[in-house]
Amino acid sequence: MHFLRNLIILFLICIAIKINLCVPTIPSSLKTLPIDGHFDFKQVHHAAKDFGNRYSFLPSAVLHPKSASDIATTVKHIWEMGPGSHLTVAARGHGHSLQGQAQAHRGVVINMESLQGPKMKVHTGNFPHVDVSGSELWINILHETLKQGLAPKSWTDYLHLTVGGTLSNAGISGQAFRHGPQISNVRQLEVVTGKGEVVNCSEKQNSDLFYSVLGGLGQFGIITRARISLEPAPKMVKWIRVLYTDFATFAKDQEMLISGESTFDYTEGFVIINRTGLLNNWRSSFNSNDSAQASHFKSDGRTLFCLELAKYFNPEEMAIVNQEIMTSLSQLNHIPSTHFQSQVSYIEFLDRVHISEIKLQSKGLWEVPHPWLNLLIPRSNIHIFAQLVFGNILTNTSNGPILIYPVNKSKWDNRTSVVLPEEDVFYLVAFLSSAAPSSTGSDGLEHILSQNKRILELCEIDGLGVKQYLPHYSTNGEWRSHFGPQWEAFVHRKSTYDPLAILAPGQRIFQKAAPLSL
């Protein structure tokens, strides 16, 4: 009896040892760091979730910083612990990553939304700009700058994202053909490097770090402040959608609109395959002035292409703007009976996705898996891609919208870390799918992931020169292929600013303490 009891005790001890080996010990030194914020070692589960809802890696701790100094102190401490420490650091903004990029398995996640600092400040004058925290949401920047009649030049379609998050990728929307992405409209950054140094950088000061961080996927530093360029803000928007049945005509019109001094301030497009409700999807609530005409137009059984345009204006310019729009639309080759138009406020247009988000949240349809796939495709291959994918690999668009629109490479700064196709004009094609939880059908996660895989394989086999936006790869070889000739410079920058690979482990580009291989 005693033998059996002792055996059970020994068994339980072994289990306990095994569990402790799996759960990392928390360095006691973290608990005594001289910071104004605080660490949380218990409530960490929220830091293992993101918008993608596909990956979940628990950190050992979550830092709630009050200042950039708190972040620097933490990173510097981990840096000084050397390569023998398992700890890594990930900055988490609004949690909109898709594949665990802002998570740190057994590491430290920094809750950037806790970051405090100098109040947002708008500067007017000949070169207007706004100084903001890296944790600030773009929607808050919009509200604050509009008080001065100003606004940032370039946006993302969804504004409830942090400045640091979008600048670490690029930040693209329908204004990019004119102003470039958000990373082309930044004047200065404050960054905490992988050595725990707080560095101010710009085009003229610490310029290599400045361009490394922009589009750098969080690999070289954590953005704690940014200076964003502004322009005069309009009050109203003419919001227009027209339809096409022929992709070549659709693409030709899009490229014409971005090639010169376009009347329009925003140009995007999307694909509609075999579905009704063609003027609306979850990413915006477009209400046509002629709702009866719109409701009579059906897309069942067909592949259609929708060109979405916006013209910014002030009320006193109404007559002139209407004439400009009529003139510009007369040059397009859309289906004549499919000119749908709406007039909304500037802020209502820019925040259009959030309206739909609220509706989906109320139905429990927002926090589902989002197996998104974002591609940048050279103009010379976009027709081949469209022919092979739309209506073939994809037979409907019921799982979410597919965006497709061209941008000018000349509006992107080639000194940043972002990877682009080699041609002067390329298309963003974004498959913004939502998966039905537990479904094994065409709306299920596995089916959508299989489609994404087929699309990527097609691009590879046909040599289409495609690059992923918001890239995600699992192996070093895949990352090398993604960066191509930029890989050597990327590794050099990593060895300079984060040589122990402490930062952004969720990107899976480098492994901590492993040699940085060219």
Automatic annotation (TrEMBL):
Top-level division of the source organism's lineage: Eukaryota
Q: Where's the FAD-binding PCMH-type domain?
A: 55-233
Reactions mediated catalytically: N(6)-dimethylallyladenine + A + H2O = 3-methyl-2-butenal + adenine + AH2
What residue stretch is flagged as signal peptide?
1-22
Please state what class of enzyme this protein is.
Answer: oxidoreductase
In its UniProt record, which GO terms are filed under biological process?
A: cytokinin metabolic process
Query: What's the family?
Result: Belongs to the oxygen-dependent FAD-linked oxidoreductase family.
Question: What protein name applies here?
Answer: cytokinin dehydrogenase
Per the UniProt entry, what species is this protein from, by scientific name? Gossypium tomentosum
Instruction: Give the taxonomic lineage as stored in the record.
Output: Eukaryota, Viridiplantae, Streptophyta, Embryophyta, Tracheophyta
